[in-house]
Write a structure and sequence with these properties.
The chain is α/β, with parallel strands linked by helices. It has a 5-stranded parallel beta sheet, sandwiched between helices. It has a 5-stranded mixed beta sheet with strand order 12-9-16-14-15. It has a 4-stranded mixed beta sheet with strand order 6-8-13-7.
Length: 676
C-alpha cells in the first residue's frame, strides 16, 4: 500500500489505512511534507476546501468592464503586472468596443514630456491614455503623482477621460496613486490549453482579427503554421513552471512576442513563393522571442523547440510536432474548428508535451512547494528581542556549528610541502582554495560569536545579526555567508555537512598528497582547478593553453582508480538531471520513474588540442550530447561576458544513442551538488 502511495502521481493520493482515518487533516499535511512533498499542494488545497470552502482556491475571473465601472476621470485604472503579462492589447480592444480614442505611451527615458502632452490632449477631448511600465520611469513618478492629484475637481477635464497605468510592483511607484487607483491583476493564462484558447478566442473577438486570420493567400499553409506558432508559444511560456529544467532563467514571454511573430509569418507567406523557414526560424527564435533570452543554453533550447514547428512537415495533416499525438493541426480550416478542437484538449498536460521526462512533474511540484514555504517563512517576524526560547535555540545551533568547525588552515606551513612549481599547477590551486576557505571559516566563526554576544547583551543586535539569527532558526544559509561563499541551494544543515566534507577533502590532500581522483564538487572556485589541469598539460607539451580543450571518457561505475592518469585528471561527484547514465551501453538513457538525479561515474578529463578529432567510442560512432555542468540545480547565476552564467562550470561531451535535440528538450545537465 505504501509503495502504491509513493508511486501515485495524482495531486492528492489517498493515504493508506489506518492513517487515512486516524490522522487529522493537518497531520496528513505533515505526512505528505515528510514522505511525498510533490503531493503537498493537492493536500493543502483539500485542507483549505475542508476548513474554508473552495471559494478561497478558485481564482476570480478578470472582468475589465467591472473594473472600468469603478473608475472616474479622477480615478486611474492600474494594472499590476506579473511576468508574461501585457494588458495593452486587451485595453485597446476594450477602447475600440467603447468607441473611444486610446493613446498608448511606453514610459522610459525621455518619454515624460510625450506622456504629459498625451494626457493634456486626452483630458480636453475625453480620450483615454495608457501609460505602460511606470516602474521604468522612476524619475518621472513625482510628475505622475502631481498629475493624478490635479485630476480631482478640475472642471476642464471631460468626464469621459480615463488614465490607464501599468507597472510591476515597485518601490518607486507613488503610494498616493496606488491608493487612489482601481487596481487590477490579470495573470496570463496558465496551461497550454488555456493559452491556446486565449489566442484563438482573441481572433474571434473582433472583425479585424477575424479578417486577418482569413486574409493570407496561402490559406492552408498559413493556418497550419499559425497553429504551430500558437502551440510553440504556449509551450515555451509554460516550460518555466518546471524551474531550471524548463529554462535556466525564467523569461517573461508574452502576447507581444507572439503577435510580432504572427505578423512576420503572414508577411513572409504573402511575399515569397516558397516558405522561407530558415528566415522565420531566425526572426522568431533569435529576434522576437530570443531578444529576451540571455543564456546561451536557453538560446540553444528555444531554437531546438521551434525547429519542430517551423518545418516543412508542419504542412502535412498527419504531422505531430510533439511527443503527444493529440496535438496537431490536421485538416482544420475554419476558426470555429480550431476553437472547438482546442477546447477538447486535456487540462492536465503531460511533461512529454514540453519535451521533458515524466519525472518533471515531481520536479515542478517540489519547486512549487519550496517556493511556497520560502514565502511563508519570509512573512514571519524577524525581531529577536524578548524571546528567550528563540534566542536559546539560535544559541544552541551556533554552538553546535562552532564546536564542529575546524581552525583555519596554516597556509604558510602547507606552502612548504606544496611549493609553487612550474610543472605542478595543482599546488597553486590548492593554496588558492585554502585561502578562500580560510576567509569563509573566519567569517562563520566571527558572525556566530557576534550573534551569541548580541543575545548576551554584550554588543548591539544589528539588522545583519537579526537576519543571521532568523536564518539559523529556519535552517537557511545566512545571506552574510552566502555572499562570500560558493553557490549552494542546500538548507543550512545540509550546507554545514557539505562544508565539512569539502574541508575533509583538502585535509586528505594535505596529508596524503595530490589525490588520484578529484571530488570536483569540493572546489570553491572550480574553474581554477580546470585551468590547472590544462596548464599542467600545456607546460608539459610546450603549447599555448588557449589551444587546449578537454576530451572526456566516462568509466564503468565499478571502475576503481589506483593511480592518476599520465595527462589530465579523474573527477567524480557529478549528478545527471533529466536523464541517467546507462552503464551497460555506456550512453545517456531515460530516467527511471521518480528518480530525479543519477550519479555519474568517474570521468577522465583528457587535455588535447582543440582541432584533434574525437575518436570512436568503443569502436562505435555514437552521437554526442554537449552537456553543460552547473554548480547547483538553480543553474542560473550572474551573466558573464562569455554568455554563460557564473553557475556554469564546463561542457562535457557525453555519448548518446539518441539525438542531441532529444536531450536538449529534456533539459539535461550535470550538477556538482544536490539540494539536500
Amino acid at each position: 500500500k505504501w509503495e502504491e502511495f509513493l508511486l501515485d502521481s495524482s495531486k492528492n493520493p489517498p493515504i493508506p489505512e489506518p492513517f487515512s482515518e486516524n490522522l487529522t487533516s493537518f497531520e496528513k499535511l505533515l505526512l505528505l511534507r515528510s514522505l511525498k512533498p510533490e503531493s503537498l499542494e493537492g493536500g493543502i488545497l483539500a485542507f483549505i476546501t475542508e476548513h474554508m470552502t473552495d471559494f478561497f482556491i478558485k481564482p476570480p475571473l478578470f472582468d475589465i468592464t467591472e473594473a472600468f465601472a469603478d473608475s472616474r476621470s479622477d480615478v486611474p485604472l492600474l494594472f499590476i503586472l506579473s511576468p508574461g503579462d501585457n494588458p495593452q492589447s486587451e485595453v485597446l480592444r476594450y477602447s475600440d468596443a467603447m468607441g473611444t480614442v486610446m493613446t498608448p505611451v511606453s514610459l522610459g527615458q525621455g518619454q515624460g514630456e510625450i506622456a504629459e502632452h498625451a494626457i493634456r490632449e486626452a483630458q480636453n477631448n475625453g480620450w483615454w491614455v495608457l501609460l505602460q511600465n511606470c516602474h521604468l520611469a522612476a524619475s518621472w513618478m513625482p510628475e505622475l503623482e502631481t498629475i493624478v492629484d490635479n485630476l480631482s475637481g478640475n472642471p476642464d477635464i471631460k468626464p469621459e477621460f480615463r488614465l490607464w497605468l501599468t507597472s510591476m510592483p515597485s518601490d518607486v511607484f507613488p503610494v498616493s496613486v496606488l491608493k487612489r487607483s482601481v487596481k487590477m491583476i490579470n495573470e496570463p493564462p496558465k496551461g497550454v490549453k488555456a493559452t491556446m484558447q486565449s489566442i484563438y478566442t482573441n481572433l474571434s473577438s473582433s472583425k479585424e482579427s477575424t479578417h486577418f486570420f482569413y486574409s493570407c493567400e496561402k490559406e492552408d499553409e498559413w493556418k497550419k503554421l499559425y497553429f504551430g506558432l500558437t502551440l510553440f508559444h504556449s509551450i515555451i511560456c509554460e516550460r518555466k513552471k518546471f524551474g531550471a529544467l524548463g529554462w535556466n532563467i525564467p523569461y517573461g514571454f508574452n502576447e507581444s512576442d507572439f503577435n510580432i511573430s504572427v505578423r512576420q509569418l503572414h508577411l513572409m507567406l504573402g511575399r515569397y513563393k516558397s516558405i522561407p523557414f530558415q528566415a522565420l526560424q531566425y526572426l522568431t527564435a533569435e529576434c522576437n522571442y530570443g531578444g529576451r533570452v540571455t543564456d546561451d543554453w536557453d538560446r540553444r533550447l528555444i531554437n531546438n523547440l521551434l525547429s519542430d514547428f517551423y518545418v516543412h512537415d508542419m504542412l502535412y495533416e498527419d504531422y505531430r510536432p510533439t511527443a503527444l499525438p493529440e496535438y496537431f493541426a490536421g485538416d482544420r480550416t475554419e476558426l470555429e474548428e480550431f476553437l472547438e478542437y482546442v477546447g477538447e484538449l486535456p487540462i492536465q498536460e503531460s511533461p512529454l508535451l514540453f519535451g521533458l521526462n515524466d519525472n518533471a512533474t515531481v520536479t515542478f511540484a517540489r519547486n512549487q512547494n519550496k517556493n511556497m514555504f520560502s514565502e511563508i517563512l519570509a512573512m514571519q517576524p524577524r525581531t529577536s528581542g524578548g524571546d528567550s526560547d528563540r534566542n536559546a535555540i539560535v544559541t544552541k545551533i551556533a554552538d553546535d556549528i562552532l564546536s564542529d568547525l575546524r581552525e583555519e588552515f596554516n597556509v604558510s606551513e602547507i606552502q612548504k610541502k606544496f611549493p609553487v612549481r612550474y610543472e605542478e599547477s595543482m599546488n597553486t590551486v590548492l593554496i588558492q582554495e585554502l585561502f578562500r576557505y580560510n576567509r569563509l571559516i573566519g567569517l562563520i566563526q566571527n558572525s556566530l560569536q557576534d550573534v551569541k554576544r548580541a543575545f548576551a547583551g554584550e554588543v548591539v543586535m544589528t539588522k545583519e545579526l537579526e537576519v543571521l539569527a532568523f536564518s539559523l532558526l529556519n535552517n537557511l544559509i545566512p545571506s552574510l555567508w552566502s555572499a562570500k561563499c560558493y553557490p549552494s541551494c542546500k538548507p543550512l544543515q545540509g550546507w554545514v555537512k557539505d562544508f565539512h566534507a569539502r574541508l575533509a577533502m583538502f585535509d586528505d590532500w594535505i596529508e596524503n598528497g595530490t589525490p588520484n581522483k578529484f571530488w570536483i564538487s569540493g572546489f570553491f572556485f572550480t574553474q581554477s582547478f580546470l585551468t590547472g589541469v590544462k596548464q599542467n598539460y600545456a607546460r608539459k607539451s610546450r603549447i599555448p593553453i588557449d589551444t587546449i580543450d578537454f576530451k572526456f571518457s566516462v568509466f564503468d561505475k565499478e571502475h576503481v582508480v589506483e593511480s592518476p592518469p599520465e595527462d589530465g585528471s579523474y573527477i567524480h561527484g557529478l549528478y545527471l538531471e533529466g536523464c541517467r547514465w546507462d552503464n551497460e551501453n555506456q550512453s545517456l538513457e531515460e530516467s527511471h520513474p521518480k528518480i530525479l538525479f543519477d550519479k555519474v561515474p568517474i570521468i577522465w578529463l583528457q587535455p588535447a588540442l582543440k582541432e584533434e578529432p574525437k575518436p570512436p567510442h568503443n569502436g562505435v560512432n555514437l552521437g554526442v550530447y554537449d552537456c553543460p555542468v552547473y554548480k547547483t540545480s538553480q543553474r542560473s547565476g550572474t551573466l558573464s561576458t562569455t554568455g554563460h552564467s557564473t553557475n556554469y562550470v564546463l561542457t562535457i561531451k557525453i555519448p548518446s544513442f539518441k539525438s542531441e535535440k532529444h536531450w536538449v528538450k529534456r533539459g539535461v545537465s550535470m550538477l556538482t551538488q544536490l539540494d539536500d
